[in-house]
Design a protein that fits this description.
The complex is a heterodimer.
Chain A (H helix, E strand, L loop, with lengths): L2 H20 L6 H20 L7 H21 L5 H30 L6 H28 L13 H21 L4 H19 L7 H23 L2 H24 L4 H6 L4 H7 L8 E2 L2 H10 L2 E6 L1 H5 L3 H13 L3 E6 L9 H8 L7 E3 H4 L8 E5 L8 H4 L18 E6 L19 E5 L2 H14 L1
Parallel strand pairs in A: 1-7, 2-3, 2-5, 3-4, 5-6, 6-7
Chain B lengths: L2 H22 L7 H12 L2 H9 L7 H30 L3
Helix pairs in contact in B: 2-4, 3-4
The chains are: A alpha/beta, B mainly alpha.
């Protein structure tokens, strides 16, 4: 064990920790990310010091290819697509762990033909299992998020028993591998089962639950890195992997809490399916429409405005016109804030990034718990592309599938304007009672176009 | 691997997880997306394992090829993850 290399690994672990600590403050976050990347560079350099010069050529080529692909994605991706990108990269991380595990397995079982000791073998099997599930699970999440496969849950009869059978077969195959470590067929079986399990566990989960799923897969990718640390007896892998694992678990918890669902309930899937059928029988909601001019007058007459953004805002690319609306209102000394629900958007904190991109200062983005008492003293709430997160049914209707989910109390405001393309349902497939409330007005049409019109009307007032 | 080294690794795992929970619980919700993409980049630490797997060995072995695949994937994860996180955090202004 080379002391210099080990100390460099320690230094890199410390940089990861400080980097994450600096994420606790928005103003330090960028420096924290930079520090964390320096930590990664040091870990890479320390590893390269152990490598024979002959291998450097192919290593350099692989790093070059990977860097170019990574940079290309990082600069090309739209902010609306960040969840897909995170899902994709999680998947790559998972697959990399599987590949490292197989590489080490092949080396020990086929080339050096040494006895693989039990600790290493268990680590290899765990790495294949977690990494494989992370890879295919993330790919399914990626395809669901970018709409290439349906966002609604895919369920079939006997799904859960099938998963259980797969899991049991995996355990049996693991025991068989332990008894006969050099049998490569068993390893192939282990890899295949993990890959199939990844697909099977994510397809029944509906699009509305994707924030939970990517948080969880994020955690898995960290755990996969941890298991490779056990294979290679390497502490920096374990420290970094544990940090990521913890981060994913915390975000998963926050998301579940914000939807009033248990993790088990999310993972079993099928949410929003049975509900859609029942809901069509309920009485239809009568809504009041509002025109662009009248909406402009309502903004002009208000002294406080809260905007509730949802993913629909991002789809319509309405962030920038909302900033113009904000500028117009602030010129008139109207207080203008944003209320952010934890599950607004397709991943934790997604709305904040989208609004930051539109140059909206982050101190105007207020969390649910902080802003919920302010709605009753607010003249005008403007809901753009959000639906389930403001549905009072979560508080009033025990029959509703979202009952018990914490919501933004938008309904308490004096007047509510909802910008919406049409009378469609929310992502959870639930009818929104709020739209029928006497203080709620609907502003139909494409959010970007209608808000732009409202802004030009305000300018004329 | 001896039991002694396993115990040390488990110590590291438990303490690092605890530290992770403490640190990350304090990250404000505003930063959850960059946190996730940043931690995604950190999970690319598998690059260390990938590099070691690429070491020596002839091109005829599966071990080498698996190492090279892992290296490309982990590099995408690391470079892409840090770059996109930086791009996002640059936009957060007061």
């Amino acid at each position: 064990m080379n002391i210099t290399i080990q100390l460099l690994y320690l230094f890199s672990s410390v940089l990861f920790i400080i980097g994450i600590k600096m994420m606790n403050k928005t103003k330090d976050a960028r420096a924290g990310n930079l520090l964390s990347s320096v930590g990664m560079l040091i870990a890479i350099i320390a590893t390269l010091m152990q490598i024979e010069v002959i291998s450097m050529v192919e290593i350099f080529i692989c790093i070059l290819i990977g860097s170019l692909i990574g940079l290309y994605y990082a600069y090309k991706v739209e902010m609306t697509q960040i969840p897909e990108m995170v899902a994709l990269f999680n998947g790559f991380g998972g697959l990399a762990s599987v590949a490292v595990a197989i590489s080490d397995y092949w080396l020990k079982s086929q080339i050096t033909a040494a006895n693989i000791d039990i600790i290493i073998l268990v680590s290899i099997i765990l790495s294949v299992f977690i990494g494989g599930i992370t890879f295919t699970g993330s790919m399914v999440a990626f395809l669901k998020l970018n709409g290439r496969i349906t966002g609604s849950p895919i369920t079939f009869k006997g799904q859960h028993p099938l998963n259980l059978i797969m899991l049991i077969s995996f355990i049996l195959a693991s025991v068989a591998t332990w008894m006969n470590p050099s049998d490569i067929n068993l390893m192939v079986v282990l890899v295949l089962i993990s890959l199939v399990l990844g697909i099977l566990t994510v397809i029944p989960i509906g699009g509305a639950d994707m924030p939970v799923v990517i948080s969880l897969l994020n955690s898995y990718s960290g755990m996969a890195a941890c298991t490779t640390g056990f294979i290679l007896n390497n502490n920096v892998l374990i420290v970094a992997g544990a940090l990521v694992g913890a981060s994913g678990i915390i975000l998963t918890q926050i998301m579940c809490k914000a939807m009033n669902r248990s993790l088990v309930n999310v993972l079993l899937g099928g949410f929003g399916q049975t509900v859609a059928g029942e809901q069509t029988e309920g009485p239809s909601i009568i809504v009041k429409e509002v025109g662009v001019e009248e909406a402009a007058m309502l903004f002009d007459g208000a002294s406080s405005v809260i905007v509730v953004p949802g993913y629909g805002m991002a789809v319509a690319q309405a962030q920038h016109v909302i900033r113009e609306l904000m500028e117009q209102c602030e010129k008139r000394n109207i207080s203008f804030k944003f209320a952010i629900h934890p599950v607004a958007g397709r991943m934790p904190g997604h709305m904040n990034v989208l609004l930051a991109e539109a140059n909206i200062s982050y101190d105007k983005l207020i969390e649910m718990d902080e802003i919920n008492n302010e709605f009753s003293n607010t003249d005008l709430v403007f809901i753009v592309g959000a639906n389930d997160v403001v549905n009072p049914a979560a508080e009033t209707n025990p029959q509703s599938p979202i009952f018990g989910m914490p919501i933004l109390n938008a309904y308490k405001a004096r007047t509510i304007i909802v910008s919406k393309r049409s009378m469609g349902k929310g992502y959870a497939g639930v009818e929104n009672e709020l739209f029928g409330y006497p203080n709620c007005l609907m502003l139909f049409g494409d959010a970007k176009q209608t808000i732009a019109k409202v802004v030009s009307e305000i300018k004329e007032l | 691997m001896s039991i002694d080294s396993l115990i040390i690794l488990i110590y590291v795992l438990v303490l690092a997880s605890y530290l992770g929970f403490e640190l990350i619980a304090k990250v404000p919700p505003t930063l959850h997306t960059p946190l996730m993409s940043g931690s995604n980049a950190i999970s690319g630490i598998t690059i260390v394992g990938a590099l070691l797997a690429c070491n020596e060995l002839g091109y005829t072995t599966l071990s080498k090829w698996m190492g090279m695949i892992a290296l490309i994937l982990a590099t995408i994860n690391v470079v892409g993850g840090y770059a996109v996180t930086d791009r996002m955090l640059k936009m957060f202004k007061k």
